[in-house]
Amino acid sequence: MKTIGISEHNLSILNNVNGSVMHALKKSDFGFSDFGEIYFSNIKYQNIKAWKRHTKMTMNLVVPVGRVRFVFYSEEKNIFEEYIVGEKNYNRLTVNPLLWFGFQGMDEGKNLVVNIANIEHDPSEVERKDLMDLKYHW
Amino acid sequence: MKTIGISEHNLSILNNVNGSVMHALKKSDFGFSDFGEIYFSNIKYQNIKAWKRHTKMTMNLVVPVGRVRFVFYSEEKNIFEEYIVGEKNYNRLTVNPLLWFGFQGMDEGKNLVVNIANIEHDPSEVERKDLMDLKYHW
After folding, report:
1. Is the Cβ pair A21, B36 closer than 8 Å?
2. Domain assignment of residue B88, given as a range
């Protein structure tokens, strides 16, 4: 039951002898609202970046390299939701604003998160908590 | 002398003990026209994907993983241009339509090309040639 403002979309991978092509996001896709900025976050094996929330940004998250555990928390509903995506479960997550989130590297090699955001980076719409401020069994 | 319709833009990398954050493209950046689609191409070590050209698409190419050699060819000017970008020379290439291009994986590990394109994939605006149809010493 995914109820707190996240949708998950399966993406296709086209195999090629020289290296695969991996879809990420088209402007006509469900979950696309506007383009503001795209950036990458590397997350090391077992390390966790948490917690952060955006008050305005809708994120579209894709993991083309490695495997990443995402945890989201709705303060309003007091519910956590967890998703593991990456090369093996190649899905895009569309994440509404106002959800707390953190993520953890799950592969021993590189883990790369791509965020296609509907607005440009703006520190005034970012809130942070320490990892221990929200209790979750990672 | 870069004259055939390509511009190169230095991007920043923010280091973090849990993994770096790598900028790619903001809508206010020079080189951004419109958002149509984003997709990823893996290219294996020493392998080459060539030649292709788009008659309408402007590409913004970023290599957050590994290192990739891009070769562009202007039929009009009969000029080749070569760029090597990746984690070590972390630049974005903005590529006008009508240039032939090919690319080669330069790292023994993974090489990942991110294309932020101003239109969605449309096979009617893609032209192809065999690798041997344009002579280049890779």
Report:
1. no
2. 6-133
B80 in any annotated domain: yes
Compute φ and ψ for B64, nearest 5 degrees.
-80, -10
Domain count, chain B: 1
Please report whether residue B138 resides in a domain: no
Instruction: Examine residue B53 and state whether it is found in any structural domain, yes or no.
Output: yes
User: B97-117 pLDDT, tens per residue?
Assistant: 999 999 999 999 999 999 999
Task: Inspect the interface and report whether the beta carbons of B112 and A48 lie closer than 8 Å.
Answer: no
Residue A80 lies in a domain: yes
What are the counts of helices (DSSP H) followed by strands (DSSP E) for chain B?
0, 12
pLDDT at B2: 61
- Find the CATH number of the domain harbouring B78: 2.60.120.10
Instruction: Suggest the residue from B16, B25, B42 to mutate for an interface test with chain A (most A CBs closer than 10 A).
Output: B42
pTM for the model stands at 0.96
